Amino acid sequence: MNNDNFKNSTISLGLILGISLIISTLIGAYSFYRVRSFDNALSVTGSAKQAVVADSVKWIASFNRTVELGNMKSGYDQMERDLVAVKKFYLAKGFKDENLNISPVFMDEVWDPNNRGDAKRYVLRRTVEVSSNEVERISEVANNNGELIEAGVIFSTQSLQYFYSKLPDLRVSLLASAIADAKARAGEIAKAGGKKVGDLKAASSGVVQVLSENSVEVSDYGAYDTSNINKEVMVTVKATFYLR
Length: 244
Prior knowledge:
Blueprint: H1 3-39, E1 41-53, E2 56-68, H2 72-92, E3 101-102, E4 106-109, E5 121-132, H3 135-142, H4 146-150, E6 155-163, H5 167-192, E7 197-205, E8 209-212, E9 223-224, E10 230-243
Parallel strand pairs: 8-9
Antiparallel strand pairs: 1-10, 2-5, 2-6, 3-5, 4-5, 7-10, 8-10
């Protein structure tokens, strides 16, 4: 190799090494910048809760008869007489026919290994469903149906389900409160590290929890308690703030 070629090779190698060093420095500086950027943010979870009172209710009740297979016709006839008494009860309490959603007759076999032939027994059942905004009145009527029992009707309440209709609007206002709660928590944490909380960087809301009053039984997938008139609505939010 002559001197000119040797010089050219040396220069090329030097340029390659120099460029590589510059690229490495830039990569290192960028990584350092990103690490410092990540360190300059704080993620916390905030929550907000508000007590509400249910403004609608669904009352599901049923009446039934147990009959042997050989007496099925008389069982259906008795169910028709029961239906007349049940409708009379509801109408006397101020309901109208259009308020009542009454199912057809459902039939379930009563399991008994000793039953054979016409002696097999079956339960005939019909359900009555009423939905209303008169929460207190429905609850009172549902708990005072003794006159049907006295009339010989096998009548019982299956469930009283209480709902809150303004949940979407309440959720929006609670999210704002939850973010404020998250910022207050972030401020306390930042203060301990000698920093202050800056602007909101990102936020994501959690599921809505509709709980019975004073309950702590939350669910990762959200909860909606329908068994109580008095409820508490809770939302959570995960918020990330810049630090300064």
